[in-house]
Amino acid sequence: MTTTATEHLLRADGVTVRFGGLTALDDVGLQVAPGSVVGLIGPNGAGKTTLFNVLSGVLRPTAGTITWKGAPPPGRRTHHLARTGIARTFQGLNLFSMMTVLDNVVAGADRLATGGPFSLITGLGRHHRDERELRARAMAALERFGVAEYAHRMPGTLPYGLQKQVALARACVSEPELLLLDEPASGLSGEQIGALADQIRGFSRDMAVVLVEHHMDLVMEVCDHIVVLNFGRVISTGTPQEVQADPQVTEAYLGTPADTSGDVNGAAR
Ligand SMILES: Nc1ncnc2c1ncn2[C@@H]1O[C@H](COP(=O)(O)OP(=O)(O)OP(=O)(O)O)[C@@H](O)[C@H]1O
After folding, report:
1. Cβ < 6 Å from ligand 1: which residues?
2. GO CC: one term (predicted)?
């Protein structure tokens, strides 16, 4: 997708992150256009999680800027970003184990509420109408992700694949414009990853997606644009075909100069 600077939802410019003497990210740039799926890949230790944490507001960069629709995001914490229109999933799912599946998803809907997340979860406070509406939205999200029948179960009692669907429902219930997915394929079977690919393509009808993922087949199948990091620097960007054909990418993954096929499929699993 070709875009101008003003069309980008999220943009990172010159992002540098240092941990003591270690430079985890060095002058990294990235743009996410509306409705696009952007993959963030690279060998272990390349800086993907660090960049994801910067994009999601968990980590403030040592240098560089993040802009959301051309302006600085209003706050750095996850709930600030949710209110902006950014939602994320976590590698470790981060579901609340003492809350039902439904309440977990209601908690993700707080950007749509006027009474705040606490009133939604507890039912206390002024906004009972909000609560009813958002419970209905949360149920609709659970239905969309095929887990409505588990609404009143505790998440820990569900198989991992279903918990992942609950986490996706929680992220999507706020109707974000950008969804940040942190290794969504980890722990899933081949069949589940195939279904996830269809879901991610479906998401891009409503929202942009940034995907950090080691599963190369998934990345190559769903992404419009890929950014490849190595040792904290962007070494390649482009379409899946372009980065697969880039000798620098093959070299980064395999540690040897590229052969003519330049195929990185499977190299990082
Ligand atoms: N909190 C931290 N303190 C010190 N060093 C860190 C910290 N977080 C990450 N690093 C270092 O920064 C570099 C980039 O790490 P990061 O986790 O972002 O890589 P990654 O591409 O996500 O790797 P992986 O694929 O293994 O998850 C690594 O050298 C890592 O050891």
Report:
1. 19, 22, 24, 42, 44-50
2. plasma membrane
